[in-house]
Amino acid sequence: MRFLKFFLLAVLATWQGYSQSEDEQQIKAIYNTALTNSESYDWLNYLSNQIGGRLSGSLQAQQAVEYAKSQLDSMGLDRVWLQPVMVPKWVRGTPEFAYVETAPGITTDLPICALGGSVATPLQGIKASIVEVNGIEELKLLGPGKISGKIVFFNKPMDPTELNTFKSYSGCVDQRYAGAKEAAKFGAVGVIVRSLNLRLDDYPHTGTMDYGDTEIPNRIPAAAISTKGAEFLSATLKLSPKANFYFKQNCKVYKDVESYNVIGEIRGSEYPDEVMVVGGHLDSWDLGDGSHDDGAGCVQSMDVLRLLKETGYQPKRTIRVVLFMNEENGLRGGKKYAETANSKNEKHVFALESDAGGFTPRGFSFDCSEANFEQVKRWKPLFEPYLVHLFVKGHSGADIGPLKDDGIVLAGLRPDSQRYFDHHHSENDTFEHVNKRELELGTAAMASLVYLFDKYGIVPTP
Amino acid sequence: MRFLKFFLLAVLATWQGYSQSEDEQQIKAIYNTALTNSESYDWLNYLSNQIGGRLSGSLQAQQAVEYAKSQLDSMGLDRVWLQPVMVPKWVRGTPEFAYVETAPGITTDLPICALGGSVATPLQGIKASIVEVNGIEELKLLGPGKISGKIVFFNKPMDPTELNTFKSYSGCVDQRYAGAKEAAKFGAVGVIVRSLNLRLDDYPHTGTMDYGDTEIPNRIPAAAISTKGAEFLSATLKLSPKANFYFKQNCKVYKDVESYNVIGEIRGSEYPDEVMVVGGHLDSWDLGDGSHDDGAGCVQSMDVLRLLKETGYQPKRTIRVVLFMNEENGLRGGKKYAETANSKNEKHVFALESDAGGFTPRGFSFDCSEANFEQVKRWKPLFEPYLVHLFVKGHSGADIGPLKDDGIVLAGLRPDSQRYFDHHHSENDTFEHVNKRELELGTAAMASLVYLFDKYGIVPTP
User: Residue B88 — φ and ψ, nearest 5°?
Assistant: First the structure.
């Protein structure tokens, strides 16, 4: 008995030793290829500098669909296709304009941009006195008496002491998303929201907002103001509490239009019916060129399949790159993909999203069973030489969220988050802020994780 | 016996629990203060944008000495002083100029800069045919027959597959440092060196070079060429092997001048004779403003002392910030500091340098005894919440190197290294490339390590 146990342990050790070394070699090959022969940076250059911001329903979004498909077509995958999906079409219109007026004719212009989905102001703009609140909670404390007829200025800043800047973002994104809906209940005539940016600068940051069940005539326009603008406005209001604020925007919602998720796959050699997804979202906001959000995630995901082919790895399972449409203002692509997968009874075992910028990868977060998380943690040593240390449970990605069920492992790439909100949803999200090596290291980390899940599979749910 | 052991273990556990929690609290206070109330970014703004590049012996270096001293004077330290040190004075002169000539009159200009310490070309410049070599080894294989009368083009690139970019740098810095000396032995008339940059761009990167015992009349001028320039030149030589290269530079070495290390200290409350140093180097190259190399390390080091004071921590040991002069082209400040410490019989127990850029901190490297490294590894969990994972043995810092003896722990901050060589020693090392939060996180990591070494001391060498 004791001998048998010893023998089995020895066999196991040998097998694990061999396997470990094979894994180390494959991951080394992935990293070396990513750092010397990657396409991601060139693809991103094209998406960012030849196409630009790719808001759902725009010409640029359609150009991005065609470009991404043409690149996937050239990669020698087993299948490439477009999955039609109806998406919202919101258009910003001419540049927004705003000022604060401390006395008649004494004005200071301030940088704003309409929030995605907002209605326009009347043609002549809106001028009203303005009330600063520190988030939705404080708005509710003030009530209609102090809000009616006014513009509400949501000025809750992101918490700088949080190391994970996405947590800081979560802590105040409600004022952007639901601020107009809540302020309208108290009779406000407009909403100005501090940009979700930890840095003080002059860029207003847009992002999606929602009126919920607010009746159409009661919907009020909402805009973001740059962080420096917010600081200036707040200081001005302390000196001149009766200051007026003026803003003008002529954004508009059109009818939904047809767009596409762009999909390519390598068919699995042993378990072709087990599908693994790696993806990002192809749409972006319109102000910058969407390099970090989420051009980076798209080109990384495309390059994952290319790296596996370049390194000669033949996947056992079907590996699919999905470039989702309309993450930013509707998530229609993610929902459509999951609906279609369900209706076809496709078995999805793993999905990985990169949608947190093209920065140095620090690790991954996982939305999965304990047993699968335990398996992941055993792989940690394989990532240590590449300074990928962070393996935590948590949010994976918005687009792959609709795939969630008991039998799937969802994962999100976790790049260094310190610079992300300097760029996110603003004119400052541009190609020159993506470092080629950092982008490629993210791709390599993703490809390595996909390789491991393909090779070892997931732990089935009992 | 068994009871006693249990009792002792329980006491130990309680004590460690308490202490751990006190450490956690102090480190949390350091991080929160660094991220909400730091001076480092403003100091760096002044050093970079009001003073600029601070080459040893320059007016700007002197201005930096005065500015840093004035800031330390305002911090309420126990003592602030200037330590005189004689430094080399090398001056670049008017901008360098170079071209490759494939046929008489058919020329393409290429971006170069003189290497620090190089001699000038003759007034009219040098024109000669040019031989490409892949590093010093290949030069030696060619020998005088193929080198004499020519310009040598060292074109060994940094290895992109190395995750630690400083290792890639080490792998080819010899061609910059000693290329001219070696080529002169074979009768070369000049040297052009590929910039030590992993990115393809148009910035030539300078850096120190040395003629060793080459006789003065035999010293040949040496310049760096941008990576794109190097690629272009290499491609040109494949098509036109007889192409001529022309370059002109009028740099000059003057007599040594007096400068200073800038030093401030908080006197220890219990062991004032045990000195702990935290520092960076105040000089920089002249092409950029020296924000990453090493303005960042200077302002972080200054802020370490300020953070300890702000968080109410009273050091047991004497903590000294040292802003070293002349790291780049002589290391005179580091040598002077160590000589003075020796001559005064000062007992230095710990020294930490930040000289790898103001990027997100990944960890520290340690040059110390095994016992001290074991102690450091026990502190790792305290750094995990701040995503500081890397604790390795290795190089600490050039300036603190001369302090090395058996009884000291030397440490170096290890920021993320992917972007460092995009900036290093070039016109592209400027303030806008430093992210405020990344800089502050480095400061906080440094202050936390200084706190732990101050509180627990080092493990004495048996």
Answer: -65, 155
